[in-house]
Amino acid sequence: xxxxxxxxxxxxxxxxxxxxxxxxxxxxxxxxxxxxxxxxxxxxxxxxxxxxxxxxxxxxxxxxxxxxxxxxxxxxxxxxxxxxxxxxxxxxxxxxxxxxxxxxxxxxxxxxxxxxxxxxxxxxxxxxxxxxxxxxxxxxxxxxxxxxxxxxxxxxxxxxx
Length: 161
Known about the structure:
The chain is α+β, with helices and mostly antiparallel strands. The chain is built from 5 helices and 6 strands.
């Protein structure tokens, strides 16, 4: 790696540490030419499948689109950023583990819905209203009733082993 200060071609690693649950390596380097120290980060670059949109168009998977959709659903909700990041990480892992070359946008939406269902009911309904294109109040009511029924079932199951 070239030194960012003097462009000398030789640097040596002074210290290495694992970060982000072992998914990233932080390295402190020292330039053999000028002696300056700097930090580099190393992570695995994984390829994601192509996303098949509802109109049949295929496009490159973009984590930024996934993140912005989840952020919009969680806007002004009491969910810590770390929790949101963990949910995004879980979705990304799920997509990678499928080992498919293509994935439908509908399937990604289902993964997001599953994560939001566990994180925050309001964010779940917000996302569902856009994802499922609710047209009127009755569709909101129906989704909220489904959500209430699933929460009631979960509470009953957890209290009665």
